[in-house]
Automatic annotation (TrEMBL):
Organism expressing this protein natively: Georgenia deserti
Domain GHMP kinase N-terminal span(s) in chain numbering: 64-147
Gene name of the encoded protein: thrB
Record-given protein name: Homoserine kinase
Chain positions recorded as ATP binding sites: 92-102
Places the protein is found: Cytoplasm
Pathway connected to this protein: Amino-acid biosynthesis; L-threonine biosynthesis; L-threonine from L-aspartate: step 4/5
PANTHER family in the cross-refs: HOMOSERINE KINASE (PTHR20861:SF1), HOMOSERINE/4-DIPHOSPHOCYTIDYL-2-C-METHYL-D-ERYTHRITOL KINASE (PTHR20861)
Task of the protein: Catalyzes the ATP-dependent phosphorylation of L-homoserine to L-homoserine phosphate.
Molecular function (Gene Ontology), one example: homoserine kinase activity
Enzyme class, broadest EC rank: transferase
Reaction(s) the record says it catalyses: L-homoserine + ATP = O-phospho-L-homoserine + ADP + H(+)
Keyword RNA-binding: no
Organism taxonomic ancestry: Bacteria, Bacillati, Actinomycetota, Actinomycetes, Micrococcales
E.C. numbers: 2.7.1.39
Keyword ATP-binding belongs to the record: yes
Length: 297
C-alpha cells in the first residue's frame, strides 16, 4: 500500500443522534457541512481551523481529524506522512450535532482518498473505525452514509442500514449559545431504567421508523422518550423547556444527540422561529443531507 495522492478534500455532514426514543441507534444527517483539505507533506503536521472550533481545538497531531486519518492509514497498511490540514468548520461544537463524529469520519475518508487501494478502507471498515473513536455508531453511520440510519452492534462489530425518509421530513435545529460536553450529558443518565419506560421506548422507536418513512402524521407520538431526555434536564434546563413547549404546541421536538441543541423533525413556521430567535436560539433550517461524507474533486 502506498500514498497515491498528494492532496484530497473531504466534505462531511452534521448529524443528530437518538431522534428521541432511538437512543444510541437512530441518526440523521443534516445539511450543515465541514470541509477538510489534507495535503501530505514531508515536514511537521500543522492544522489550520476556520469557523467553528477556531482557537479551541488542537493544531497538531492531537487534532481529531489527524488522529482518525492516521488510524485509517495504519489500518490500510499505508505509510505515515506529515500532514497539512485546513478545516473549514460549519458544524457547531459541543451542541449535539455530531462535530466529533464529523471530524473522525473526515479523517477516515481523507485516508481512503490518499491511498492507492481505497477498498482497504471499505464501508464496513470505516464504520468500525469511526465507532472505535465514538464508542457507538449512531452519529458515525449518518455521517458516513447520509440520510436517516439505524445502527447496531453485534459480535461482528457495528452495522448500519438506511431508513427510507419521507420528503416531508424537513428538520429544523435550534442551537443555543452555550455548549455542553457529551461526557457531562451522559454522566447524568442512570445505569438502569424502569422496565415500563424501556418497553414504551422500544415501541416508540419502532413507530418512529414508520413515521420517518411516510407516516409523518405520527412524528409527534413517535418522538416521545422516557429513557434519557428527562434525566438530562438538570444539565440543560433551557433545552428541556424548549422541547416541552414545542411538543405542547404540536411540534415533534427532541434533544439533538447529547444536546443542548434541539431537533424538530418538521420545518418550523416563521412566527415560531422568530419567537425562538428572540429567546436566544439560533434557528437553522438545514434539511437532510442525503449524501454522507465524500471526496470533492
Amino acid at each position: 500500500m502506498r500514498i497515491a495522492r498528494e492532496q484530497v478534500r473531504v466534505r462531511v455532514p452534521a448529524t443528530s443522534a437518538n431522534l428521541g426514543p432511538g437512543f444510541d441507534a437512530l441518526g440523521l444527517a443534516l445539511g450543515v457541512w465541514d470541509e477538510v483539505t489534507v495535503r501530505a507533506i514531508t515536514g511537521q503536521t500543522r492544522v489550520s481551523v476556520e469557523g467553528e472550533g477556531n482557537g479551541d481545538v488542537p493544531d497538531g497531531e492531537d487534532h481529531l481529524v489527524v488522529r482518525a486519518l492516521r488510524l485509517g492509514l495504519e489500518t490500510a497498511g499505508a505509510p505515515q506522512a506529515g500532514l497539512d490540514l485546513t478545516c473549514r468548520n460549519a458544524i457547531p461544537h459541543g451542541r449535539g450535532m455530531g462535530s466529533s463524529a464529523a471530524a473522525v469520519v473526515a479523517g477516515l475518508i481523507a485516508a481512503r482518498g490518499l491511498i492507492s487501494d481505497p477498498e482497504a478502507l471499505d464501508e464496513s471498515v470505516l464504520l468500525a473505525l469511526a465507532t472505535e473513536f465514538e464508542g457507538h455508531p449512531d452519529n458515525a453511520a449518518p455521517a458516513l452514509f447520509g440520510g436517516a440510519t439505524v445502527a447496531w452492534e453485534d459480535a461482528d462489530g457495528p452495522h448500519a442500514a438506511a431508513i427510507p425518509l419521507a420528503p416531508e421530513v424537513r428538520p429544523s435545529v435550534l442551537v443555543p449559545a452555550d455548549s455542553l460536553a457529551t461526557r457531562s450529558a451522559r454522566q447524568v443518565l442512570p445505569e438502569r431504567v424502569p422496565h415500563r419506560d424501556a418497553a414504551r421506548n422500544a415501541g416508540r422507536a419502532a413507530l418512529l421508523v414508520l413515521a420517518l418513512s411516510g407516516r409523518t402524521d405520527l412524528l409527534l407520538a413517535a418522538t416521545e422518550d422516557r429513557i434519557h431526555q428527562g434525566y438530562r434536564s438538570e444539565v440543560m434546563p433551557a433545552t428541556t423547556e424548549a422541547v416541552r413547549a414545542l411538543r405542547e404546541a404540536g411540534w415533534p421536538a427532541v434533544i439533538s444527540g447529547a444536546g443542548p441543541s434541539v431537533l424538530v423533525l418538521e420545518r418550523l413556521d416563521r412566527d415560531t422561529a422568530q419567537t425562538l430567535s428572540r429567546h436566544g436560539w439560533r434557528v437553522l433550517d438545514p434539511g437532510v443531507a442525503t449524501q454522507g461524507a465524500h471526496l470533492l474533486a
